[in-house]
Amino acid sequence: RDQFLAMLGHELRNPLGAVLTAAEVLEIANQGRPDTAGAPVVARQVAVIRRQGTVLTRLVDDLLDVARVTSGKVPLERQRLDVAELVRRAVEAVSARATQGGIEVRLSVETAPLWVSGDAARLDQVVSNLLTNAVKYTPAGGQADVTVVQNGRDAVLSFRDTGVGIEPELLPQIFELFKQAERTLVRAEGGLGIGLTLVRTLVELHGGTVVARSEGLGRGSEFVVRLPLASADARPDAAEKDAEAHGARPRRRRVFVVEDHEDNRNSLVALLEQIGCSVHSASDGATGARAIVADRPDVAIVDIGLPGMDGYAVARYVREALQQDVILVALTGYGQPRDREMAAQAGFDVHLRKPVDVKRLRALVTAPSHS
Questions:
Q1: Whole-model pTM?
Q2: pLDDT band at residue 142, thresholds of 50, 70 and 90?
Q3: Closest Cα to residue 148, out of 93, 219, 89?
Q4: What is the C-alpha to C-alpha distance for residues 203 and 126, in angstroms, rounded to an integer?
Q5: Burial of 369 (0-12, 13-18, 19+ CB in 10 A)
Q6: How many whole angstroms separate alpha carbon 143 and alpha carbon 135?
Q7: Which DSSP symbol is given to 260?
Q8: CA 192 to CA 181: how far, in whole Å?
Q9: CB count, 10 Å around CB of 129?
Q10: Where on the phi/psi map is residue 72: left (φ > 0), alpha (ψ -120 to 50), or beta?
Q11: How far apart are CA 157 and CA 290, in angstroms?
């Protein structure tokens, strides 16, 4: 099962990566010509592509997490983060969908920042799942209230909606795998029935708790997440923040892309050029490896699943020739913990999973120079 899900995820992420990267390219290009007659139409359609592509990506991520959830093998990459800011970003991301459906989303953050030690991607998965459910199961004219407060040594996140509510007999089992499936298939927007299982598992892995409340069908529901706050010494160092703000300036980066999937390669190259990078590319591992060593770019983004000489072999070849003079980025549809380990062992500095997180990619290739 795990092998099947991993392969399924890889095959789905390749086209999803091409679609979402192309949407970013279109949006940036469209921003450069706001006065043209078709610009509003393009903007609307790009928003649809991004929104639905993101939904598909989340479904793929949830599906692939099932095996790890049931086996208890969900890895956490902990860092210090402000959970209040994480919730703010999640609310912003879902606002367009909520507005389109006639639903008001209200956010109240009484205390900020609230520092926790957690995996940003996994906590975003928790918050996004709960927000998406609130919007999905609330009819037009309804509202979803999100609150973030400090209670003792915990950060408390509440997601309350005026939606369809939860049947009393389902409430005790709401977090069990696939429990919602038979009740959601008849609705306009169904689900796999695994989102809340992931929510509970991820929250508990962070040392927290989550509870569901509802007074019954048609009376809305509330999900409350409690996460332990990080100790005071886990907060960002003032000197570190000052260095980030004042001690660095971005510079133009030379980037080399090795990707055999033509649509992915072309879209990624176009996006990097729009960001301001000088980009060259290759469609196979052997050609890419030789070119990287010859060109000595600042960053090399290498797909793992290349024909012939795969991405791991490319990384080993480049690392042996250039040592640490290039940042090697693994680009892959595989996201299991073992895949990350293999990438690190081959010499990669960063592991990017398809579809590419554009914000993370931009930060990576425009990283400041302290020289």
A1: 0.57
A2: very high
A3: 89
A4: 7
A5: exposed
A6: 8
A7: S
A8: 6
A9: 23
A10: left
A11: 51
